[in-house]
Amino acid sequence: MDSGYTIGLGNNDSRTRIDANEDGIKFWETQASKLYWFEKWHTALEWNPPFARWFVGGKTNASYNALDVIVKKNPKKKAIIWEGEDGSKREFTYEELLSEVSRLANGLKSLGVKKGDRVTIYLPMVPELIISLLACARIGAIHTVIFSGFSAKSIQDRVDDSKSKVIITADGGRRRGSIIKLKDIVDEAIKDLNFVENVIVLTHTNNPITITQKDKKWKDLVGIMSSSCDAEMLDSTHPLYILYTSGTTGKPKGVLHGTGGYLTHLYSTFQWIFDIKDSDVYFCTADIGWVTGHSYIVYGPLMHGTTQIMYEGALDFPTPSRIWEIISRYKVTILYTTPTALRMFMKFGDELPNSYTLSSLRLLGTVGEPINPEVWKWYFKIIGKEKCPIIDTWWQTETGGALVSPVPGLETIPLKPGSATRPVPGVHLSVVDEHGKDVKNDSKGYLVVTKPWPGMLLTLWGDDEKYKTVYWSKYKDMYYPGDYAIKDKDGYIWMLGRADDVLKVAGHRLGTAELESAFVSHPSVAESAVCGIHHEVKGESIISFVVLKEGIIPTVLLKEDLINHIRKTIGPIAAPDQLHFVKKLPKTRSGKIMRRLLKAIAKNEQIGDISTLEDEASVDEVKAAFAELKQTLQKF
Ligand code: ATP
Ligand code: MG
After folding, report:
1. Which residue segment(s) compose the domain that 161 sits in?
2. Which of 343, 397, 460, 595 to mutate to test ligand 1, by most ligand atoms within 8 A of the CB atom?
3. Which end of the chain is more exposed for a tag (fewer CB within 10 A), N or C?
């Protein structure tokens, strides 16, 4: 485990951590008081395990905090600089954004949408997506965003679960040069859902669509509305949104978030993690269809009056340099992306980023999966030119905001490639064994959160029982995220992969991230995924899939070399019994490797829910690799 990367931004506030440790509740109250409240809370935390309610009695509004508060100080500040895949550009100041949000909020009201009603949003990455979330929040409607890559069936399931009465969509969205016909997909999805009363349709790509009685064109609806709409004074515990998880481990779960606690968590972490300044140009590459977009494109940044880049399309289209072009064109100072995107950029080589001016960057973030140390170092060296701290943020849809992350806005500490460092102030974590007892430093165990935190989910939508079973049944009084980890002697957390995917080989437990990072540290490897299947003697046998870097030819010699590389880096027990070269790995649409699929195919089992799979061709790829292997074995 490397250390020695102490890259500071000049902040040294030791007080925040001391305050957080002395009295956690008081600490979060101080943070909450930085938001705007119509009425102050009477109880900071009502904790009826496992249900936490923050700032009870307080009245606030998410859209008021994200817009009105900023408009009062700096109405002309740029909020969104939008670029489409086809090169079109649009900009919104905070003042303009507030007008548009108010218009749509009035439009929703005119359709009979009331506080507590659900509104499904199925839009591409256009400014109207942010406007839609904030318009719902303004009137207390619960938004439920569905990533615009999903099929009719996935939408149908989610809309049926949330019982949304209105859907906001567009004629189409752009991706990789083609148009995804979103309105047609919605028509298909809701044909049997009679409770859906209206569909608001934004004209974006101008492809032909069918307009039914339920449909209202965005322009027609909002055009006649007033640009002023008072923000509803909502209880702090009022649900802000439902968001379905990525579905990496199975069927997605409808996570329900509240208002006051969630906003407090984001206001705080966005400042601590990104050290946000008025002059920053922030670029988060996530889609708002995922929690990263909700928390760190919409609510966190806007509450700080941040100027940000919003991009619709693929980051490597029409050329693999698209992302570097955007960064240099807009002089982006903070980049927040995923390990999966970084591995793709790495695969294209160093020359591309090296031929762009990236000197505006001062801070680089990552989220979504464990970042392989090799990828971390590449990000640090090639993109950040050894000047920008790498901020690895660990969190989940359920946690609302980051729980483990460096906080350069507060302190300068050594970074270690591959570790998300320490819990953020006010968050309490442990690494425990099967019985819930803390394991020794440097030993592997399950990550748990030992105290409620403000961004914590309220429950799973309509299913308190499932909420209790999924997160609160493995351990009593501790939140179980389902991730496997190590805490080292300095208190740094190293994420080792999903707890369900842990491999047990000859009495040793191995996290998938340990093995996959070992593969990625080989110069020929771009990406890898591993899984275990039952083995009579060893307990489990390791199966590995490897994607090679551009231009590298798969050979038997290379296979042997890779297996030897694992033997050397981890140890002989970690040597895989099978190694398959594949062109792509099965991933969720949010870019996470779906290891359960590999396992199911290896074991010849049903592959389960794959509605969140990015590319069905990857399943065939894996199946073909196994079929080939079977044939080879039959020959002997
Ligand atoms: P589902 O719960 O439906 O299977 P999911 O867990 O992929 O889907 P998300 O909430 O989007 O849905 O992802 C959270 C998970 O992503 C975490 O539990 C963790 O496994 C992984 N993750 C996120 N950030 C990091 C990180 N910085 N380091 C390691 N793992 C991370
Ligand atoms: Mg999860």
Report:
1. 80-232
2. 397
3. C
Which residue puts its alpha carbon closest to atom 11 of ligand 1? 246
How close is the Cα of 117 to the center of ligand 2, in Å? Answer: 26
Q: Is the CB of 611 under 6 A from ligand 1?
A: no
- Kindly state the greatest CA–CA separation across the chain: 77
Please tell me the pTM assigned to this model. Answer: 0.96
Region of residue 479 (phi > 0: left; psi between -120 and 50: alpha; otherwise: beta): beta
Cβ distance 242 to 376 under 8 Å? Answer: no
Work out the number of other CB atoms within 10 angstroms of the CB of residue 495.
22
Whole-angstrom distance, CA of residue 22 vs CA of residue 16: 10
> Would you state the structure tokens that stand for residue 111, as one six-digit string?
């359709």
Closest protein CA for atom 28 of ligand 1: 370
Output the six-digit token pair for 80.
């969104």
Q: What total number of domains does the chain contain?
A: 2
The residue from 199, 215, 232 where one domain ends is 232
Q: What is the mean pLDDT of each run of 10 residues along the chain (636 residues)?
A: 74 94 97 98 98 98 98 98 97 98 98 98 98 99 96 95 98 95 98 98 97 97 97 98 94 97 98 98 98 98 98 96 98 98 94 98 98 98 97 98 97 96 98 98 98 98 98 96 98 97 93 97 96 90 94 96 97 94 91 90 82 78 70 44
The C-alpha atoms of residue 125 and residue 105 are separated, in whole angstroms, by 19
Choosing from 170, 200, 232, the residue where a domain stops is: 232
Residue 257 in contact with ligand 1 by CB distance below 6 A: no
Residue 285 counted as domain residue: no
Closest by CA to 248, choosing from 340, 376, 182, is 340
Q: Please name which of 427, 429, 425, 517 lies closest in space to residue 481, comparing C-alpha atoms.
A: 429
Dist. CA 419 → ligand 1 center (Å): 15
